[in-house]
Design brief:
Elements: H1 2-5, H2 9-17, H3 21-33, H4 42-54, H5 58-70, H6 75-87, H7 94-108, H8 110-136, H9 140-148, H10 162-171, H11 174-180
Helix pairs in contact: 2-3, 3-4, 4-5, 5-6, 6-7, 6-8, 7-8
Amino acid sequence: MEKWKKKTMNQMLTDANKGDSAALYMIGGCYLYGLNEMPINVKIANQYFGASALLGFGPAVDQIKFKNLEEVHNPFMMIVYTNLLASLGHREFTFIYHELRGNALQKFGLPIVEEIERLALNKKVEIYSYQEEMKKAKDKAKYISSLINGRSIESEDKKYGKDYWFAIFEANNPSLLSQKS
C-alpha cells in the first residue's frame, strides 16, 4: 500500500496499461474516494474494480462481494464471491465461507449450496481465461481498455437475483408448494 501512496495517477495508469491488477484497483479507489485529484465517479471506479477482479486481484473481488451485500442486496452472490476469494488463495476467507456455507445448507438446502459453488468455480475459470488472454495480448493497453469499458466478472450476475434462487429452492422443496395450496 505504501508504494501506491507515492505514485502519481500517470504512473498508476502506465502500470495498469501493462496489466497490473493492483494498479487497476488503486485507480478505482482514486475514483471512488476522489484521491490523486480525481473526481469522485462511482461508475468509473466500479469499472476499474471490475477489470482488476477479472484479473484475479483479491481486494477487487472483495469490493464486488461487498457490493453484492450492501448495494445489490444479494446474499447468495456475496457467498459466491466469498468462495471465489478463498479459492484464489485468500485463506482468511476460507473459514468465513465454510460458516456461510453451513448456514446456507441448513436454511436453504444442498441445491442452493451446490449452485453457489458452481458459480464460484465458473468465475474462477473465467478469471484464469482472462489472465491467459492478458498474457497473450500483443497490445496490453488495448486489452485492459476492453476490460475497463465492457467486460466484467459481474456481467452475468443480474440473472442470479432472488427469483433465480427462489426457483432452485422451490424446485427442491416441493413440500412447500403443497403447504401453500
